[in-house]
Amino acid sequence: MVKESFVQKLDVKRIASASNSRNGVPLPVLPNSKSWNSKFSSMISSQMISVPYLNPSHLISLTLQSKFPILLRRKRGKHNSGDVVLKDLKLKAEALNSLKLPVTVKAGFVGTITLKVPWKSLGKEPVIVLIDRVFILAHPVVDGRSLKEEDREKLFEAKLQQIEEAESATLEALSRSKLGSPPAGNSWLGSLIATIIGNLKISISNVHVRYEDSVSNPGHPFSCGVTLAKLAAVTMDEQGNETFDTSGALDKLRKLVQLERLAMYHDSNSKPWKLDKKWEDLTPKEWIEIFEDGINEPSNNSRNLSGWAEDRNYLVSPINGVLKYHRLGNQERNDPNVPFEMASLIISDVSLTVNEVQYHDWIRLMEVITRYKTYIEVSHLRPMVPVSEDVSSWWRYAARAGLQQRKMCYRFSWDQIQALCHLRRRYVQLYSDSLQQLPNIDSSEIRNIEKDLDPKVILLWR
Fold first, then answer.
1. Residue 380 falls inside a structural domain
2. Which intervals hold domain Chorein N-terminal (predicted)?
C-alpha cells in the first residue's frame, strides 16, 4: 500500500506535469481532449480523488505484489517504459489450500509476469499480459490424523479466506440490487474498462505441473503431470483475424484461443525427484533445467532430453488446437433461432494411452481423493487433542460426524439446539462489535467459534 506521504490531492494540470520523485520518470500526459478533460474535471470536483505520487507502472507493480500473496518476490520487479515485469517468483506451500484438494505445493516457480500497458493510447491498443515458465511440484496432503498445528492453521486460514470471498460477493450483489445502479458499461469510465478487458491479450507459455505420490498406492510410487507449451488468447474480427474492438468488446465478445503442445503424462513405479539441495534454494537456471525439458520437444525425440524428462509415458500425447468463440451482444439477441454463443474447436490428432499399471494407480488415487473429501467435510468437528488426552471429545466427534454425513442433523436434542442458539447470539454479537471496531474485542473467541463451525453456517450467521 502507498504511504500517506506519497498521496497528494492533485488537479488535472498537476497530474499531467508531475514526475516521480524517486526515479524521475514522468507521469503519462493525459489526452488533449476537451470532452475527456471536462469529464475528468467533473469527477474531481464531485469527489476528491487521491492520486498516488508515483509512476503508474510502479503503482501497478505494487498492486500486483499486494494482490497476489501466493507469490514471493525473488527480485524487485522492473517498471520501465510503461511495462511491469516481475521475475523469479516462488509459490508458497499454502497456495492451493483454499481449493481443498488432497494435494499441497511442495515447490513452485514463476519465471516472469509481464504487464504491458499502452498509457498514451489506452483504449486504442490492447493491454498485454505475458506469463512465462510456470513450474509447480505437488505431493499428497498430510493425513489429518497426523496434522501438525501449523497445518491446521493453514487449513483454517484457507477456510476463512473462502468465507470472506463468499461474503464479499454476497454483499456486493445485495448492494447492486438495492441501489439499482445501471451497468458500469453505460458510463464513460465503465466503457473504457470494458474495452480494455474485452481486448486483453493473454499469453501463458512453458507450463509444467507435476504430482508425485508415494502414498496412494503403497509400494508403487508414481508421478504424473501436465505440460503446456503455449496458450494465447486475442480478440478477433469476423474473418478470424486479430483486431482491436472499440464497440462493446466485453459485451459482444470474439476471442481466438491458440493451444500448443498440451500433454499429460503418467510414470508408474517412478520415485520422487531427489536433489542435492532444498527446492526453495534452487536458482532460476536450475528450475528451468529440471522442468522445461519435454515441453517443446517432440515426444518421440528423446535424444536431446535430459534425465529429468527421459522415458516419459504420455496418457495424452501433445496436442495443438485453435478455439474460436463468439458471443452476441445484448442488443443482438433478438432472433431466438440464432444462438447467443458459438464456438468452434479444431485440434490435432489426439492419442490416449492407458496401461494396466497406470489404471491401478489412478484407481488408488481416486480412492484417496474420495476419503479426503469425506474427511474435509467434517474436519471442523475434529478435536485438536490426541485421543489419549480426551476420549469423550473424540466420541462426540464420531457421533457428530456420522450425523452430518448421513444428513441426520435434525435429531439434535433440545439441549443441543439451545446451546447452538446461544452460540449464534454470542457469535453475532462478537462479529458485530468487531465490524464496528469497538475496544476490548476478543478476536480469539471469534476464531475459536469459527474453528468448530461449517463455512456455510458462518456465512449464514454473518
1. no
2. 81-462
Task: For residues 142 and 229, give the distance between their C-alpha atoms in angstroms, rounded to a whole number.
Answer: 31
Show which of 12, 37, 52 is a domain's final residue: 52
Alpha-carbon gap, residue 308 to 291, rounded angstroms: 8
Q: Going residue by residue through the chain, which has 462 residues, state the pLDDT in tens, using 9 for 90 and above.
A: 433 333 333 333 333 334 344 444 444 444 444 444 444 444 433 333 333 444 544 545 544 444 444 444 444 455 555 688 999 998 877 666 666 677 888 889 999 999 999 888 888 889 999 999 999 999 887 655 445 566 667 777 778 888 888 888 888 877 777 665 555 445 777 788 888 888 899 999 999 999 999 888 888 999 999 999 999 999 988 888 888 887 766 678 889 999 999 999 999 988 888 888 888 888 999 999 899 888 887 655 555 666 677 778 899 999 999 999 988 877 777 778 888 888 999 998 889 999 999 999 999 999 888 888 777 767 767 787 888 888 888 898 888 777 766 654 455 677 778 888 999 999 898 888 888 877 777 788 888 888 878 788 888 888
Alpha carbon distance 168, 386 (integer Å): 36
Q: What Å distances lie between residue 458 and 166, 286, 372, 435, CA to CA?
A: 11, 45, 22, 15
Q: Looking at the structure, do residues 407 and 331 belong to the same domain, yes or no?
A: no
Is residue 74 located within the same domain as residue 139? yes
Residue 363 lies in a domain: yes
Q: Considering the domain boundaries, does residue 383 fall inside one?
A: no
Model pTM score: 0.65
Q: Are residues 427 and 394 in the same domain?
A: yes
Euclidean distance between CA atoms 440 and 448, whole angstroms? 17
Domain tally, the chain: 3
